[in-house]
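Replying to the earlier thread about multi-chain prediction with a worked example.

Input:
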Amino acid sequence: MKRPVFEEISPKGRIGLLALIALLVIALGAVILLSLGTGAVHVAPGAILAALFGRHPLTPTEQIILLQIRLPRVLASALVGSALAISGLMFQGLFRNPMADPYVIGSSGGAVLGACLGIFFFSQVSIFGFSATAVLAFAGSVLTMILVYALARSSSGTNVVTLLLAGFAVSTMLGYSSYFFEALDSSGSSNHGILLSWLHGVIGIPQWTQLAISTALFLIAAAIATPLMRRLNTLALGDEYAHQLGIKVEHTRIGIILTGSLLTAVAVSLGGLISFAGLFVPHVARLALGPDHVRLLPVTALSGAIFLVVADTLARSVFAPTELPVGVLMAFIGGPFFLYLLRKSKRSYAL
Amino acid sequence: MNPLLSFQSVCFGYDDSDVIQSVSFHLHAGSCVALIGPNGAGKSTLLRLAAGTLRARSGSVLLNGTPLRNRALRHVARTVALVPQLLDVPFQFTVRQVVEQGRTPYLGLLRGPVKEDRVAVDRALDLADVTGLQNRVFNELSGGERQRVKIALGLAQQPKLLLLDEPTQNLDIGRQVELIDLLHFLGDEGITIFASIHELQLLEGNFSSILLLSPEMPLMEGTPQEILKPAILEKAFNCPPRRHPLLLERAQQQTKRAG
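Result:
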């Protein structure tokens, strides 16, 4: 008795995939419109569309709210979601493990250290539209990843388990550095609050220059990631087999780690430590589409963006005027959905 | 004409000691050769050297007369495929997706699979008789099915030389015979077979010659009749002759012939 084949539940061939991508693009447009209209001043999506096509201009107040406050934030959340999802997909593929997430080799620890320096010492400084917190978190994240890779590397190449363990140790160590900063801080509780929400992920209202630079970095990383997807499929057979097939395993691995790290750093600099999206989105995409990374990349990128735009909209509107950190909200919506899918899929995960 | 594969005084070791000590032999196109020897004698190592994933410490491995070390692994992989003992695939990759990876040596970073690659994958699935399994999840297959899929993966490389590391391991006797039949069939298709095997009773009639690799003696080469002698096996495998049915049976046959 044969088990049902996987192809039955995944869209067939190229046309199915393209249709799914088109559907996700439309969905992303729709959630962005809805999100723009949501808030203390409500603007109907129809009114925004009419204004977009030059029919019915918005009032000046509406324009300011939409263009200067909501739009940068909505775009930032889409960018963060997409970056985290792609990065999670790459690290899950590289480690051949569905439990990996964008922070798996320690970038979060370095980001915490950088963000603490920014929050406690340079809160007034800004560079090219980036806050010092964003720049230092970005730098911390990338530097940690390089440090971890250097620590795990030996003459015969990099052992994946050593890489994970080194990442865990460095990340935990640096992550706890926040307590020292808090202990030394004399300014009272405001910094504490900022740090706390940063640690749970909060998407601010970025300057347009920061958004532009982040988008450029994101696009570069996504462009590099595209040809690496087929490499991830081959690496699934194991390092030795990939080597036998003529793949330069070590070079490929560095490429994947650097690209994944760049994406994580972009996300961290815009939204702090947002957990869950990077673990959850690639997972769900894989349940629906199967594990072929080439097909997963566009779907994961778009779903990540949609997921985070929705989550961030809820985070700022459900308990308005109080805002929840988006990471907290995401855990509460994503968690049950994720568990439901795990139960429903019935396929045991082989590690 | 150059032999397809030659080992010339090849030495190799993972640390200071040598696992493979000055091994020399030729493998001619169209032959079907078994590699036997006790555990730890270096059979897997020898196959890896032949596939180019390990580089000889001294001596050289020649493919069609050219040293492997002078050629990129990518190019070697278009002539030689190694079917490993174990293939562990994470996630729910389907059989077809796994076999498609065999086309990697023909693809570039920016050159994706084209029609020619799909044809090669179809053919590999067909040759290994796993076309019916192509949409199944690799991890959910039985041991015998997996073994055939691993062979299809190797065949997708369109190799002239197929190396197999203990292909009959963990197979029941029925699946062992099926696998041997598959090797025969591939031989008829013009693919040279070089397989390490522990099931000595499968050798006669199925392999044209045997290489015996043992730390107890220098590499021996010969027909199954020449190699499968109790005296040789007893020494090579360090196995007391009265303790194994195969050796007993061989000894009886010998006495009969002598009598």
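The CA atoms of residues 89 and 159 of chain B lie 22 Å apart.

Feel free to reuse this layout for your own posts.
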